[in-house]
Amino acid sequence: MPRFPRLGAVALSLSITLVTPSFAQDRAQSLADIRQELTMLYVEIQKLKTELSTTGAASVQAGAGGLNERMATLEGELSRLTGKTEQLEFRINSIVQDGTNRIGDLEFRLVELEGGDVSKLSETTTLGGGAAPTAPIAAPEPAQPLTTELAVSEKEDFDAAGAALEAGDFEQAATMYEAFIDAYPGGPLTAEAHFQRGEALTGQGDVKSAARAYLNAFSGAPNSDRAPDALFRLGNALGALGQISEACATLTEVGKRFPGTPAVEDAQAARTSLGCQ
What we know:
This protein is mainly α. The chain has 10 helices and no strands.
């Protein structure tokens, strides 16, 4: 999970700002939800372990007939097993990536809810140990039609929310983006959905929720093309909420992290407006 030490205080301050008077009850519910998610992850890991157990029914039929026929049979079986192995490798790598990201996010939220310092969090250990896959995971050929179908569905839902935002229906857009995020957690468009949800919430005048959305957009993809704008919008929202020192620190980070981007000029203008030193 991405870390941003200088923004640790900002994330903690924002979480305090957004708390309602019924903090104890909401906090207990949130902790219960997070623990439930961890339990579900544990169950999924146990299911994977059972898949690694042999059934004792495996066998290889060399076939009958001459040498050429038996070689052809063995080559066909080898090809089948290779394809099966590639599918399993793709599935396991996908689960490792998704599971590691989810656990990292849960750790962040737990520390945040407990009032701890999120800047002290270390990198999440990859599920199963070892290094997480660095190269993009390529789906094996048999899974390609399903992958394409899911991508089309995801894009359609995202575009529908974007159409509502463009039409100025901020309430509907915010609702649709929230549903999108729930339906496609950790997807390639999730960080952008958080950002656009922040825009919709800003249009509604819900600055507190918008600030949280911008924070999620940045923390979910701190090196993306959208990250400078998300960080600027977060700083701007913190200023509107009266969190001046946190806003100034966040706006300063825009120039440090993303020099040369258009967001730097916007952040500097916002710093001047807030009277940052």
